[in-house]
Write the structure tokens for this entry.
Amino acid sequence: MTQADTCSSRAVQWRRRGALCVSVLLLGMLVAAVAQTHAPAGQPSKVEQGAANGLPLARGLLDRHLDAIGGREALARHTSTHMRGTLSMPAAGISGNLEIFAARPNKTLLRVSLDGVGEVVEAFDGVNGWSVSPLTGPMLLEGKQLEEKRFDAEYDGELRHEARYMSMRTVERTEFEGRPCYKVVLVRTIGGEDVEFYDVETGLKAGGIVTRETPMGPMTGTTVESGYQRFGALLQPTTVRSQMGGIQQVISVTSIEYDTVAPAVFEMPSEIKALLK
């Protein structure tokens, strides 16, 4: 192998490692996007700002989405969700199997096994948040990261309780991924805002833009949700594309089960318990 070949190989390895680092950060953002919409809509929020220029209220758009995927009663019936699928990073040539677990009131666990890399886990058990990755080893979430994980882990987050938001408003009708959508901005009481896009024709959520704290500082990711299919009584997206830092991830959902998640799924592994001591 020539020196040029060696340098080229090292460059590929560094790009691959960079893609993996960004991928680990993206995984946490995808939990809320994929394991979402488990609860009926709440009462109209007092913090919602009035719609301008004939735009529909944000509360109405959220309610329409919930009705479109199966209705309030079907959503309220479930206490846990188990999603299986695959995750790929086309540019890095990486793929693997993925599982996401969620349970009331605010527990989540994401596990992905990446070919040639190993297993990555991100979790929140209602009190503690952590991650275990071949790239970083075991890590406890602290500060802003933990606060945001707690916020995202709420199983009934789609209720949009007033206590969670300072305001919610529809800001414009726009194009999102080539589809006419209403853009909704939700300002969180813990700080920051989430942007969501709702398809004008179907009412279904088309995607969103979120900024979350990471070990590398605040990072913003865009998710695109499509391919809605019925699992049980509910419609859920089967393809979720996420983009951050020039790296794209694609989740393909193959199955979703409800009310089958055992509490033991969220138990803290020994290497994380050691960090608490």
Observations:
- The helical segments are 3-34, 58-69, 72-76, 143-153, 270-276.
- Confidence is low (pLDDT under 50) at residues 3-25, 32-46.
